[in-house]
């Protein structure tokens, strides 16, 4: 949908405004502060989606009789629409939409808006500085779905949804933190059933008996209901028969009467009135003939008696006719003299205009020039086509040169970039960069494995060193055992010497204890020394295995990063520095891929531009052919019209105008010559008539006298004759008048007789009496047909009332009114009894169903045990689902984290391109974590920042880039809406403002954009780019703007 005209009757500071805008591309509207730019943006939103309920509606409409609102002319899907929205005196909004004199409802128009609601249009398509700064507007469900919900494309969205779905399902099954979920519900149900099981009693027999009784009652109830329906249909049939029979019988009687009347007679319309009228006219005509016949005989006898001055009397009418033309003759003589003088003057003027046209112009050539309106129209049309073709070719040539210059510049820049980076094939370079990134990602994993093997080697060597020290008995153990042995030996010796039995027994005990401790220590040492040898061998084997794996891993690392395999001697600080360099390599590889993909997109755009230039070259050649064709047609038309051939339309039109003026003068001269000849011929013919009449009356000649003088003499002579001959002429006139009247009356009488005969033949009768008798019969037949038609309508109406009933004529012939009425009364009684039985039975059935419902509430023990078994099965199944969901959630979390590092949404990819242009390459990428609604922005250095860390201007550029990307995404889905920006560059510096202007022009190349600004330098920037600004005047405070 694109706006072509903005028409405001009254809105805010505007009244009677007509503002045409460009249907495609950029329209810049400049005006100082308080010029009404923001009001225009609100008006556009209001016409499309409705004016806000609060605001200017009451305060600004109160003192004005003009309607508050206006209209938009828009073009949507190759059709022109005019949208109008006004607010009446009661504050109600009135919406109208018309397309080619066809009204469109507001609901149909809302469907044409393609699911773009008012909030989306306000926050995405119509942006002021306030809307641009609002991050919350990008968090709505409809907009956020494009930025966050599908942030990683279909695969990422599926991963995120799958992870959320599995976690949600696990919480639904068992939320251990809050003690709720499906398993907890099943546990509660199982406990409730245990309590109910202890209270149940055997109620199955009682329930089955009541259920059987209820089914029996329902069966009887269905039978009664079916019988009631059948009786009602039968009663309806009898009543319908009763209503149909009377009109049917009357219709049948009228048909019989109509058959007795004659048919097939072609009786004339209004024949009886015409017959009476002709009879009266015939009688009046016969009386008039008798009267005129007597008057004619009397006048004839009087004329035969008066026969004097026969010669003059016979030619008096001719002489009088000539005398009556005396004034005409005098006028003709005067006009002849005047026209002769005009013809001489026009001939001189024609010769002068022929000299103006050129020496080679003659009267014959001038006569051949076609100066008709059709020729003028052809000349104007051909000139307009010729000039249009020239201007179209020039306009397309300028456009082609502009696009071609930009294409060559971009292509040169791309070639320079590829040459500096030593790239021969972009796809191959992208594949190599992607392989390099995969290798670097694998390098990180190899570093982890390298560190792991090193740690295992160090740990094994530490354990081996501990084994080398042996497992000796501690010194205090050895001392205690030695002390025990010495005390034992001393006590034995002392007992033997002193012959004390107790002492040497205790001595033996101590001695045996020392011997036992020493033997135990020796046995343990032998055991541990044997086990220690196997443990040492295992440690040495593990060290050798880890060293082999470490050598292999370092070899792979060396192949990837070019480092030396042996890093054991490197200090930890240097190793950390190498790890940082690897991170930097990954970042550089990622940046390399992004840069190469940007070059690939640029190359793809150049290819599209190259195709576009090829198409434009074809169009330019076509426009050149159009210019040649229209120029040839222009020259052919000039040659056809008889004008000098020239490619200058102004010169051709000047020659054409001179030729038209000369031809008009020639036509006037020809007309004057014809007038002179016509007047001379008229006077000659009049003179011949006078000479002929004068010869018949033996009058003397009129030599030396003009025609008017001769007529004066004849008039005097005729006056003398008239004085004595008036009586004769009067009688002759009376006789002629009577003869005419007699002939007319005779013709009228014959006509009346013919009409009467024709009327009788048309009716196929021989006398007026028979005609009158047949007219009465036909009148009665018409009355019968009208009555039959009314009865047919009545019967058809009855048949439409009961379309399911069909009555045969035999049924109507057998119909008896008394029997039919008696049957209806019997059916009424039977239906009444049956309805009463149905009501009683329904009441009993309701009580029985209530009893069953009460019994069903008492669940039996078997049912409870069955339900308990089902609950246990469901709990087991839920437990298995819980375990599966937890395993799947863990796996999906790992996949989502890995996927997030590699992919970002198409919308944010577009926003990254716009942000790169708007910030002159300072910020390169916009991304969002999976399942989060936070935005991260990557700088040129690779550092990521969140929105809160950006400056005001950069934040506005970020939000503008996202909205432009959203508009592109909506456009790919077929959603095209007019875009309105209101002074959104105010916080941009000069460099980024220039970049924003170029970006916005590229953005507006495929859509309609209205840009409002109060900064003249912005309007000047757009004018440098061949975008003419529409200037709005400033408004004084409190003053309304009347424009249009």
Describe the overall structure:
- The structure is a single chain.
- With 1044 residues, the chain is α/β, with parallel strands linked by helices.
- Among the domains are: 169-200 and 861-897; 204-263 and 787-857; 271-305 and 695-762; 374-422 and 577-641; 426-569.
- Helices cover 72% and strands 8% of the residues.
- It has 27 helices and 15 strands.
- The strands form three sheets. The protein has a seven-stranded mixed β-sheet with strand order 7-6-5-4-1-2-15. It has a five-stranded parallel β-sheet with strand order 8-12-13-3-14, with helices on both faces. Strands 9-10-11 form a three-stranded antiparallel β-sheet.
- Helix 7 (182-199) packs antiparallel against helix 23 (861-902), helix 10 (310-324) runs antiparallel to helix 18 and helix 11 packs antiparallel against helix 18.
- The relative contact order is 0.14.
- The chain crosses the membrane at residues 475-497, 504-524.
Residue share in helix = over 70%
Cα(first) to Cα(last) distance is: 24 Å
**Record field, number of beta strands:** 15
Largest sheet: 7 strands, mixed
Number of helices: 27
InterPro entries: P-loop_NTPase, YhaN_AAA
Protein name: Chromosome segregation protein
Pfam family, one: AAA_27
Keywords: Coiled coil, Membrane, Transmembrane, Transmembrane helix
